[in-house]
Specification:
The structure is a homodimer of 293-residue chains.
Chain A lengths: L7 E4 L8 H10 L4 E5 H7 L1 H11 L2 E9 L7 H23 L7 E5 L10 H22 L2 E4 L16 H8 L7 E6 H4 L5 H10 L3 E6 L1 E2 L11 E2 L8 H10 L6 E3 L4 H4 L3 H15 L11
Parallel strand pairs in A: 1-2, 1-10, 2-3, 3-4, 4-5, 5-6, 6-7, 7-10
Antiparallel strand pairs in A: 8-9
Helix pairs in contact in A: 1-3, 2-3, 3-4, 4-5, 8-9
Chain lengths: 293, 293
């Protein structure tokens, strides 16, 4: 087996059932250079320990996943969410500092769905903008980029009221590009008739915080959250999307983040190796730039 | 129980397990004035008989559902699809002529998904435009309006490569508005950040062939095709969407089309009555115009 692409980063969700130690170990063992972490397994061992484990792994840190969920109206739940987002910002900064050279302090934000009983999608979206306005000074102070992630419209009601990259960019536009960017995830935006022009715009505006790849295949899993696949196993045209991202000058790591029961049931080292193989076949041929290896 | 809204039309799919005779009977019995039919139950009795049954029912005919499915490249399958679409155009014209005064000769078109093994979404969309170009002269000659229906992006790969109303309008723009319009279905487009401006545009360009309502609720059904609900049972804001449609001057019938195993298992008369009640509560308050009753 060839060495994995030096720009590949394994998002920890791809091997969800591995604890942090295992995730770091198998990622490094597979020859992958970078990892994106999730808050829960980090908190399980504690931030300080997690940072130290990350340093020892020699891996670059690419993103911290994930925070957000701030569509609710003002009140204690909204305050708790903002406070928790501030904790996540600190976590992202700490982990990025602990990762190998080339690590990036990026916190992925998922907006959240419609509040219970509400039909006011427009209002929920405005509250996303408001929350980011509250968090931006903290992120700036910590040197963290908030990466607002549009999610596929099938999640618009219960998970994320931000459904297109264009919409994420419209929200980000109110803020400094070093502080608020967007997550460009192929699974969520591949269907969008404006996807290529939105990627071009995101690049022009300096907003591509992270590029993430996984594939779309039908029939969808019964739980549509778990319907993500290895790159190449579905119908997404990684050539045109990756070309568009690369054309903006994006030259950082690219995460593969897969939620899939079957992949989660796979031995995590094998899952990482398969991810690397899918990436090499479907994404690597379209990369213009490579990190120093 | 109050009389159903005079602008309500029952799309036959809502009571899928009823044959044509039953569908016509329960719709009329519930006091509903209009119906949209599906090709299969019409073909089951034969077009001439179906037309005669429709005339006898006294109901208006609103749409014929559905045709399209022409994303495949040139070849026998594409020729068969175009030929079948021509048959559907004739059916729509015949049924509209057989329905009560105020009937509309509208054929709903669903584009189709990516051809097997293809990742070329852009090409598939262009083939939709090409097919409509072939069919438009037949539709014009028959006095039928082709109502291209954007489907929710969760169906983009396997059912419909046209995912937004704006995209449908871009395709329709090549053709006479009397011949090619769009289906505006709340379930498919409610999440779109551009939905209100796209409806305004559709009205301005004379392209709202039919307005259809049903609701969105999570969790989605395991088969996402069957996840449609009675108006009012989910999270769609029928106020803003219906206001936008009405503001364009749309004053025709409004269909409720629901695919839902539980509703299909309901006695069809009761399902029609519940549909009428949901419509009265969620949609009627936002209607400016009423058909003569």
């Amino acid at each position: 087996m060839n060495a994995p692409d030096p720009r590949l980063s394994i998002n920890q969700a791809t091997i969800k059932h591995a604890d942090l130690a295992t995730a770091l170990r198998v990622t490094a063992e597979a020859g992958v250079r970078a990892i994106g972490l999730w808050r829960e397994p980090v908190q399980e061992v504690g931030l300080r320990t997690a940072a130290s484990m990350l340093t020892d792994s020699g891996l670059r840190f690419t993103t911290h996943c994930r925070s957000g969920f701030f569509t609710m109206p003002e009140g204690p739940a909204r305050r708790a969410s903002v406070d928790d987002n501030r904790v996540a910002i600190e976590e992202a900064a700490t982990l990025a500092a602990a990762g190998a050279e080339g690590s990036t302090a990026i916190l992925v934000l998922v907006a959240g769905g419609l509040p219970e009983g509400s039909r006011d999608l427009v209002g929920a979206r405005e509250r996303v903008r408001d929350a980011i306005g509250e968090l931006a000074p903290d992120a700036a102070a910590a040197g963290v980029t908030l990466a607002l992630e549009p999610l596929h419209p099938m999640y618009a009601s219960d998970r994320c009221v931000v459904s297109t990259l264009g919409q994420a960019l419209d929200i980000a536009a109110d803020f400094d590009a070093a502080v608020v960017g967007a997550t460009v995830d192929t699974f969520h935006i591949w269907w969008d008739p404006d996807v290529l022009s939105s990627i071009e715009r995101a690049g022009r505006e300096g907003r591509i915080a992270t590029y993430q790849v996984c594939d779309w295949k039908t029939p969808l899993a019964a739980d549509p959250l778990l319907s993500r696949h290895y790159p190449g196993d579905g119908v997404i045209d990684f050539a045109s999307l990756t070309d568009a991202v690369e054309a903006t000058g994006y030259d950082r790591d690219i995460e593969v983040e897969i939620f899939n029961e079957e992949i989660w049931a796979t031995d995590p080292l094998i899952a990482v190796q398969r991810t690397a193989a899918g990436f090499a076949a479907s994404v690597s041929p379209h990369l213009r730039t490579r990190v120093a290896s």
